[in-house]
Amino acid sequence: MAQYRRVSGSVGLITLQNPPVNALSASVRQGIVDSVKRALGDQKVKSVVICGQNGVFCGGADIREFGRQMSGPPLVPMIHDIEAANKPVVAAIEGSALGGGLELALGCHYRISHSKAKLGLPEVTLGLLPAAGGTQRLPRLIGVPAALNLITTGRHVTAAEALQLGILDHVTEHNTVDVAVKFALSVTGESLDGRRISSFSCAPLSDLDSLFEEAMLKVRGAARGAIAPVACVQAVRAAATLPYAQGMEREKELMATLFHSGQARALQYFFFAQRAVGRWSTPSGARWDTSQPRPVRKAAVIGLGTMGRGITVALAQAGLSVVAVETHAKQLMEAKKAVPSMLKRGAVRGGTTIEPDSITYSETVQAVADVDLVIEAVFEDMALKEKVFQQLSIVCKPDTLLCTNTSSLDVDHLASQTRHPELVVGMHFFAPAHVMKLLEVVYGRRSSPAAVATAMQLGKKMGKVSVAVGNCRGFAGNRMLKRYLEQAFFLLEEGATPELVDRALEEFGFPMGVFRMSDLSGLDVGWRVRKADGLADTSLTGTSARVRQGCRYSPLGDLLCEHGRFGQKTGRGWYQYDKPGGRVAKSDPWLHNFLDEYRARHGLVPRCIDQQEVLERCLFVLINEGFQILEEGIAAGPEDIDAIYVFGYGWPRHRGGPMFYADMVGLERVVERLERYHQAHPNVPYLQPSGLLRRLVANGSPPIHKWRNVIKNRNSQL
Ligand SMILES: CCCCCCC[C@H](O)CC(=O)SCCNC(=O)CCNC(=O)[C@H](O)C(C)(C)COP(=O)([O-])OP(=O)([O-])OC[C@H]1O[C@@H](n2cnc3c(N)ncnc32)[C@H](O)[C@@H]1OP(=O)([O-])[O-]
To answer: What does pTM read for this prediction?
Structure first.
């Protein structure tokens, strides 16, 4: 709703009231319409101020209403009536003015903002466009190039930038509503000609066609199949080329194509999923709202390889003092050079400064005696990690949290090496650790609620999306990835090429297909793990070469490593590169011959494999493993898995994440395809649909937000 009152004698003050962000729900819209009518009809009122309660102007349309039957007054005429008013209307912006919130402010005659406010039109990130006149008013106000940038990226701008762009008339450090009321009094009776943005023309540009061609190329390149950015460009083009009324028609038409699209549903689901992962819980009953995080002021990182350096930078950027430990002198020296330059680059990107003396370096573990939290990031070797944890348990304060950055090893086993296993958790970062958004927080059997809460909160402080997951081999993300990689290898054995598999996945929306990705991260990493697991044995011949522990196995990755092909770092992998460290993947005839010979040696007759099979084989097994993970309680809900995949593995956000994708495709279909593939490949057991997946289908395939009920019912019967 909206509250209306008269202040300072002649100013009608309208306050939007819909906590926490004053989203424009039906009742808020009704409240605005009624209040504006009252203010305009009241002789005593000479000007109007619109603000939001609790220091937030407005977070835009109420996204929760989108999936439902819309009711209440529509936004477009409501904003039109405000702009057409014959009394000055001033927007007093605090906190955020986003989406419909900024569009409402653009309908006002003046915009005054607090210096700390953020403004933007982020609709594109929800699969939409600013359809309450935003695509038509903003270019008229700030020019086409700047509007294109804001609308197609959805980025939030500071009040200072908004002032510079011309979105705002005034920025204040004081009480914004008071300033706006005074301002409203000062403009009482002044002409409003020249204050109604819809009457403006876009500033003329000499080469409009090439500007839009370029913009279109740019968004198509970045969008990876997302349709909203393209529609945003089309809408702004309408603003630049059509009269306002026709532009509004075009905006409406384009919005109609987006509004009910699968992509909009996926992106809006993901908006809420992202927030849901913060409300974590564990099977032992620890929860986000009942667990108290510990303060962490000083942290340590053990091991300054690539991951350790990134973690050191992430901690320093979060404002912590960091003790960075590396026992190898040469590696320590390299880290001392690399970390400051990584910090400097980060500071340039983020516009921050970090005190260089917030990091101290040491060659011995003794240096971490007084820290609140340690993150171990040594080589992925259990014996080495055991030793580090034993040492830490002696050196550190008794209440220091001990975290491991292992990507797959047993957190419970590491905890058992310490005196306080309840203070041990996994903090699984993704490379580069100071850039990637995802953090898997892995709780063990004995991790205390406070330990989990502290790691989750520290992740947030570092700007990460922290997802709590249980302890199992590979945790959630890598465990699912293993299935995906294996299927990709099998497809090569059956006749596909890396190019074909990668193209299918890239057209689906991944930034890189599985083989280009493997070349980038290094084929030797997985090889080392497979060797440690006793899988990578290329001395085996005949049928046994392609079977391990009774299941199908492909030694292709191992064979490539034996040829010294580790990916980009050696200039050869699934593709060839112009030099070691080269970035541009080129098709490699050697690899194709190698595949032909391999198939001939194993009596495999190559067949034609289409993109659909690639997608189903690679993605459905990954999804199936996701259901297994939910069934086992390793992840609490589908949102956790989706956040992990979007933030850590390049799953296209406009497809919502693997579990949402399964819901979109239809669970029956996923089951039917998995069963078909399992029939064709009976020695791949994980092609069998998981118990939870089958149960969901048996329960009538409820929508994704109801899956937790089915999972809970099952767990309560156990
Ligand atoms: C044909 C039809 C025509 C329609 C015309 C459409 C016009 C328009 O162009 C479309 C839009 O405006 S699209 C909208 C464009 N606007 C945007 O995209 C802005 C989206 N919002 C944001 O970016 C952030 O929430 C803020 C920066 C506002 C606050 O950040 P913060 O302080 O870190 O807080 P937080 O943790 O993020 O959120 C707190 C709680 O509020 C919830 N919630 C938030 N916004 C909501 C909304 N609009 N709605 C509902 N709920 C919303 C959020 O889920 C969370 O709930 P929970 O139950 O506690 O989890």
So the answer is: 0.95
Question: Which residue out of 83, 94, 103, 440 is catalytically annotated?
Answer: 103
Confidence at residue 351, expressed as pLDDT on a 0 to 100 scale: 64
- Tokens 């933007």 correspond to 120
The residue among 363, 300, 299 whose CA lies nearest residue 331 is 363
* Range list of β-strands (E), 203-358: 298-302, 321-325
**2-260 and 496-602 share one fold:** no
**Structural domain boundaries in the chain:** 2-260, 298-475, 496-602
Backbone angles phi, psi at 705, to 5 degrees: -70, -5
Q: Which of 16, 18, 21 to mutate to test the pocket of ligand 1 (most atoms within 8 A of CB)?
A: 21
In this prediction, residue 350 carries a pLDDT of: 67
The pLDDT value recorded for residue 535 is 86
Query: How confident is the model at residue 240, as a pLDDT?
Result: 97
Find the 23 Cα to ligand 1 centroid distance in Å: 7
pLDDT value of position 69: 82
Instruction: For 479-492, give one letter per residue: b (16+ CB within 10 A) or e.
Output: bbbbbbbbbbbbbb
Pick the CATH number of 2-260 from 3.40.1160.10, 2.60.40.1180, 3.90.550.10, 3.90.226.10: 3.90.226.10
Determine the pLDDT at residue 538: 79
Structural fold of domain 298-475: Rossmann fold (3.40.50)
- Give me the residue label for tokens 């199908």: 552
The CB density around residue 460, as the number of other CB atoms within 10 Å, is 15
Tell me: domain 496-602, CATH 3.90.79.20, correct? no
CA distance 150 to 119: 10
Q: Render pLDDT for 334-352 as a digit per residue (tens, 0 to 9).
A: 999 999 999 988 777 766 6
Q: What is the pLDDT of residue 525?
A: 85
**Which stretches of the chain drop beneath a pLDDT of 50?**
717-718
Question: How far, in Å, CA of 371 to CA of 299, rounded?
Answer: 5
Residue 717's pLDDT is 47
Question: Quick one: how far is CA 508 from the chain centroid?
Answer: 17
In the residue annotation, 213 being an active-site residue is answered as no
SS3 assignment, position 425: strand
Nearest to 21 by CA among 79, 64, 73: 64
Separation in Å, CA 492 to CA 416, 498, 547, 556, 677? 42, 7, 16, 9, 16
**What is the DSSP annotation of 475-523?**
TTHHHHHHHHHHHHHHHHHHT--HHHHHHHHHHHT-SS-HHHHHHHH-H
Residues with CB under 6 A from ligand 1: 20-21, 23, 59-64, 75, 96, 98-100, 103, 122-123, 126, 128, 130-132, 134, 255, 259, 272, 275
Q: Which of 83, 94, 123, 494 is catalytic?
A: 123
